[in-house]
Design goal:
Mean pLDDT: 84
Helix content: under 10%
Largest sheet: 8 strands, mixed
Shape: globular
Number of strands: 42
Strand content: over 45%
Distance between the termini: 36 Å
Low-confidence stretches: 1-30, 461-469
Strand order of the largest sheet: 14-22-19-25-24-23-20-21
């Protein structure tokens, strides 16, 4: 059953640090033609056949034709579609594999060996200061990740297990984290909340990191290789200190009150913001916290009125210190309306129907990766129905910082954003507690340019001319990304293009200066990571885009992380 669950996520799992778009499958050479596809699934480390793995080919309609491997690792897909597609392999205990494949017409494709990597495992015990087992503690494998120019720590444990509540210690205090990629991790432990009254969040032990640290800065790294089971990674927790904090959640909106409501507590530890517990408040909206280690925290409250559907959200940073009782007041604020206009500058005749009507979309995205900053609501997206050169829109969001994204008619980009005539830098939009009082005007222009060129592939055994000639695995799919140099134009959602037959073309590019890189779909690193930034420099290209003109680039394909590390 687990194999089937994992197989279902072949297409959904991107496996990337850099976000990449889904690759549209190329059409078959002869529509409707299918051939037989035969091969084996082997363990990459040992070459041992993998039994019971699911092999799936993704068709144009995003459906799967699939088969399970036999005892000797072999598989047969009788109706594999002809053309260029993606093949994926899922097996319990192994990393999901994704490869591009060319299936030739007129004859079976035989002898296709697919090698999958056995994932790593970290196991150990969680003990208290007296050496006794800590039962029911949540254990996470944290890994560094560079996002939006800042170092973050993200839980990289098995996706399915995290969806089900995370890895927890058993009655012996034993935990086992599986599904890990090769690399370095920090093992973090969050003890189970002690039973308590409504509004009380109480801990008997303090959160900790391997081996016995109370913060990320003091934690030891745990390095694992593919297929390795790292044992004896024991974490010792200390007794929770005698600290306390008391607070109250209130709402300034008469339509909604905290009676009771949900509150969450997060700890800010260096570059990490991690939840330590959550519970409902009392009917009066009050809460108490006991046993939190000294440090910086954030209290978050979420209010929801089932009768009216009204929502409110609030956050309040506070500090916990020994010997002092902290008072925390959390004010929850309802959604604020954002009213504006989308204006098209000199739209071409092809925009809109015969009556001049056109449509677009407006979306708000949180301008940070802090889980305590904002909460998504249904009002953060709006469909714009315009006539001629203008269309109204209305959004709603909790107070906070956002990026405004506009998806206008084909060929349009965001040229600027203004509030009551005052320019908004880039696409950054701040919703204050009192809401935005002025009119938001989003201007979109069609005065764009084009970037086209070629991508030179890396030498690779799997992409030899002889192998491709008879059909088989293709080189890793590439996506050319244009990254604005400096501040650049406001955020634009489509500055990328797929590489096909060694070439690419990106249209509707706003004028400006850019850096271009040809990323593999599963690079395994971020361009913001300083450990790779210098290595990437020689692969990129700089280009200046002018309105109505085409710029030409010749790029060298970027290696994957594994190719870098060879």
């Amino acid at each position: 059953m687990r194999i089937r669950v994992l197989a279902a996520s072949i297409l959904a799992s991107a496996g990337l640090v850099c976000a990449q778009p889904a690759a549209p499958a190329a059409g078959p050479d002869q529509p409707g033609e299918t051939v037989e596809l035969r091969g084996r699934v082997l363990a990459a480390q040992s070459g041992v056949p993998v039994r019971g793995a699911k092999v799936a080919v993704t068709t144009r309609q995003r459906e799967n034709v699939s088969a399970f491997t036999r005892f000797n690792g072999s598989f047969v897909i009788e109706n594999a579609p002809v053309g260029d597609y993606e093949i994926g392999v899922a097996a319990s205990g192994y990393e999901l594999l994704h490869k591009r494949i060319r299936i030739p017409p007129g004859r079976p494709l035989d002898g296709l060996d697919l090698r999958i990597k056995r994932s790593a495992v970290v196991t150990g015990r969680v003990l208290d200061e007296n050496g006794r087992a800590v039962v029911g503690a949540t254990v996470e494998a944290l890994r560094e990740q560079f996002l939006e120019g800042r170092l973050r720590w993200r839980d990289r444990s098995s996706r399915m297990t995290r969806f089900q509540g995370g890895f927890r210690t058993d009655d012996r205090g034993v935990y086992r984290i599986f599904g890990l990629s090769a690399g370095e991790y920090v093992i973090a432990v969050r003890p189970r909340e002690e039973p308590g009254l409504d509004g009380q969040l109480r801990f008997a032990a303090a959160p900790g990191y391997f081996p016995n640290a109370d913060s990320l800065s003091g934690a030891a790294r745990v390095k694992v290789e593919w297929g390795e089971e790292k044992q004896g990674i024991d974490v010792r927790l200390v007794k929770a200190p005698p600290t306390s904090a008391h607070g109250r959640v209130s709402s300034l909106d008469a339509r909604i009150s905290c009676s009771p409501c949900r509150f969450e507590v997060y700890r800010r530890d260096g570059s990490s913001v991690r939840q330590v517990g959550s519970r409902s408040t009392t009917e009066q909206g009050s809460f108490s916290l006991f046993g939190l280690p000294p440090g910086r925290y954030i209290a978050v409250a979420r209010l929801y009125d089932r009768r009216t559907g009204a929502q409110a959200f609030g956050r309040q940073p506070f500090t916990v210190s020994e010997g002092r009782v902290q008072a925390v007041e959390v004010e929850a604020h309802a959604e604020r309306a954002i009213v504006g206009r989308l204006v098209l500058v000199d739209p071409p005749d092809s925009v809109g129907d015969e009556s001049g009507a056109w449509s677009a979309r407006i979306r708000l995205e949180a301008d940070n990766l802090d889980p305590t900053e904002t909460r998504r609501t249904g009002g953060m997206f709006a469909q714009v129905e315009g006539m001629g050169g203008e269309g109204p829109f209305e959004l709603a969001a909790f107070p906070g910082r956002y990026r405004l994204m506009a998806f206008g008619p084909k060929g349009a980009y965001v040229e600027g954003i203004e509030i009551d005539g005052r320019p908004v830098p880039g696409s950054k939009l701040t919703v204050p507690r009192g809401g935005i009082s002025g009119d938001v005007v989003v201007t979109m222009s069609f005065a764009t340019g084009t970037v086209r060129g070629t991508v030179r592939e890396l030498e690779d055994r799997e992409s030899s001319v002889a192998f491709l000639a008879k059909g088989g695995l293709l080189p890793p799919a590439r996506t050319v990304w244009l990254l604005p140099a400096g501040e650049g134009p406001p955020a634009h959602p489509r500055l990328l293009g797929r590489v096909r037959e060694g070439g690419f073309e990106i249209t509707a590019v706003p004028p400006g200066e850019y850096e271009a890189f040809a990323f593999p779909d599963r690079a395994g690193y971020s361009i913001e990571d300083p450990r790779y930034r210098k290595k990437l420099a020689r692969y990129g290209g700089k280009v200046e885009v002018k309105s109505g003109e085409a710029a030409v680039l010749d790029l060298q394909a970027l290696p994957t992380r594994e190719q870098f590390d060879r």
